Amino acid sequence: MLSANQSPLANIPSRPLLLAATLSLLLGGCAQQARTPAANASLAPPAQQATAAADMHKEKAAKRRPFPIDTFYTLLVAEVAGNREQYDVALANYYYQAERTRDPGVAARATRIARFLNARRAALHASQLWAELEPDNTEAQLAATAELTLSGNLDDALVHARKALALGADAPMQSLAATAVSEPKLTKKFAPEFARLASKYPDNPEVTLANAMMLRAGKQYPQALAITRRVQQQHPAMLDAPLLQSHILVDLDRRKEAIQLLEKLVDRYPRESRLRLQYARLLIRDDLGLAQRQFAELVRQHPRDGNMILSLALIQYETRQIDAAKSLFERLLALGEHKSAAHFYLGNIAEQDGDITAAISNYRHVEPGSDYVPAIKRGTELLAKYGHDKDNRDWFAELRQRHPKQAENFYLMEVDLLREHDHNQKALALVDEALEQHSDSGRLIYTRALLNEQLGNNVAFENGMRKLLDRDPDNATLLNALGYKLIEDDSRLQEARQLIGKALELRPDDPAIIDSMGWVEYRLGNHGEAVKYLQKAMKELPDHEIAAHLGEVLWVQGNRDGAMKVWKRGLKINPQSKIIPAAMKRLQSNESLEQHASDS
After folding, report:
1. What predicted TM-score, i.e. pTM, was given to this entire model?
2. Over the stretch 426-467, which tens digit does the pLDDT of each residue have?
């Protein structure tokens, strides 16, 4: 297989010799390997010797038959293009002629060029053709194995891997196993075959470790661990074994052993990045300072490796080494590596430094990925906080135009931002705008209903909920929300109880619905039933709002100590609660008024 910086046509002669070498290659055909005559051919009778010689001559002549002139010209163009580093032209010509001529030499060259260019589809087909044409060529079988593995076709990849093993080659069995363990159903399907091959080739460490990988995926940890230790003893320089061993030890909750194993190996092989990287990753949870030193050494050894730089930068960021982390994030940008992550954390740093302009600029440079939505939220929150409403509108409009399939999500995100900053009327107008484009969106209809409730438009709230319930009559969340709202109207308490009751039938263990049932029972005057429901809800979900309801019912029942105890618990859960103090003030005020009226 070609190295990363090796040209697929690196063996092409210098220009003065190019044409002569190419003519020699093409005029004679690319496949010039004749079969070796049998060792006892000279012992055959003269007539048979003559027949055998004639057959060999015909076969050799057939293999050396010149290409047609158009094929010759196409391949000549390919060679010249390759010499000029126009590899796409070289690949196109070789790939076409490989299928047309079915010449193994042409197929081999097409395969090598395609793999060098990472042209996966061409490499897959060319390598399969090459392996078919030269079944005894180990390089062909290995190339086909690799490309089929990359394409996810493990059945055919194993066919070629078995051929390569039979030819004495070291097939990439661990790569095959890594793909197989990616899904449980694949692990179950291919585990028996890996076990069979391990039994057939007990002295092949690649096959043996692949089987250990399959055993690990099947949670057969002791068996897998025993295999890795045996391979490590037999092949101490093969570091795949202790690496796999460290993973299995972690699976067995023996992290300390894994760390000790890797510590010794890192001391013995200080330049082996895979060992140090695994060691550093394990240390992150147990010793962040030592983990940082390992990543620092990895960055020193590989100063342009973006993964190493990002790992070190994140550790420094988390441990508040902000200047050092900032420098590494900026290095990532200079290298063009992990640019979105770098911009996201540089935005965080700028925000902490109070440089809002730089923070927003960095957040806006984050591209789709794991940091994309958090960056948008942080950036738009900053704009909203400092009153840059137009900039926010423009940003969200740009996002909806850039990602039309996610337009509804960005509308909802903008609405939530407006609600958080008490711009409910603007949020409602935006939802109306969104519904003009997404009229069937249940999320938008629900959001509009909630906004109407907050703005005091109970009729619009109920209409929205009814519209959603027409679509989904057994939606417990909607039934509970509408029922709870209707409790405010004394004339509709039975209707509220009916809605909440249906929701409770659908989700009998939902503490929010249980709380609603307790509250409606209280409003209906059924205080004993109310306490039962509310105590159950409080047990299932300790919450300040439930505490407010339960405390009120206990207070009305005359259990003042019980009420105060529940309210104190609710305030401990949420010291910022406004519901509990409001309930206490209202009830105590009512009691004072009643007492005053009685005294009068």
Report:
1. 0.73
2. 999 999 999 999 999 999 999 999 999 999 999 999 999 999
Q: At 281, list the tokens.
A: 């990753």
H-helix or E-strand spanning residue 496: helix 493-506
pLDDT band at 96 (very low <50, low <70, confident <90, very high): confident
CB atoms within 10 A of CB 145: 28
Estimate the crossing angle of helix 407-420 against helix 442-454, to 10 degrees. Answer: 10
Residue 28 has pLDDT above 50, yes or no: no
In this predicted model, what pLDDT tens digit does every residue of 237-262 receive, in sequence order?
899 999 999 999 999 999 999 999 99
Cα 435 from chain centroid (whole Å): 32
**pLDDT tens, residue by residue, 35-66:** 333 333 333 333 443 443 333 333 343 444 56
Query: What's the Cα-to-Cα distance from 218 to each of 188, 211, 222, 258, rounded to whole Å?
Result: 8, 11, 11, 20
d(CA 243, CA 265): 10
Whole-Å CA distances, 247 to 122, 244, 476: 36, 5, 45
- Residues present in the chain in total: 600
Rg of the chain taking only CA atoms, in angstroms: 37
SS3 annotation, 426-479 = HHHHHHHHHHHHCCCCHHHHHHHHHHHHHCCCHHHHHHHHHHHHHHCCCCHHHH
Q: Distance of CA 77 to CAs 28, 74, 84, 92, 578, Å?
A: 17, 5, 11, 11, 81
CA–CA dist 451, 427 (Å, integer): 8
Per-residue pLDDT band for 72 (boundaries 50, 70, 90) equals low
Q: How far apart are CA 451 and CA 415, in angstroms?
A: 10
- State both tokens at 483: 């029922």
User: What is the C-alpha to C-alpha distance for residues 183 and 396, in angstroms, rounded to an integer?
Assistant: 38
Contact between 281 and 308 (Cβ < 8 Å): no
Contacts of 566 (CB under 8 A, 6+ apart): 538, 547, 550, 551, 554
What is the 3-class SS of 510-574, one letter each residue? CHHHHHHHHHHHHHCCCHHHHHHHHHHHHHHCCCHHHHHHHHHHHHHCCCHHHHHHHHHHHHHHC
Long-range contacts of 501-504 (CB under 8 A, 24+ apart): 502/476, 503/476, 503/477, 503/479, 504/476
Structure tokens at 467: 């519209």
Mean pLDDT of the chain: 86
Delineate the domains of the chain, giving CATH numbers in brackets.
1-31+53-171 (1.25.40.10)
Torsion of CA 535, 541, 546, 550, to 10 degrees: 20
pLDDT digits (tens, 9 = 90+) for 515-546: 999 999 999 999 999 999 999 999 999 999 99
Q: In whole angstroms, give the CA distance from residue 590 to residue 592.
A: 5
What's the token pair of residue 564?
A: 């105060």
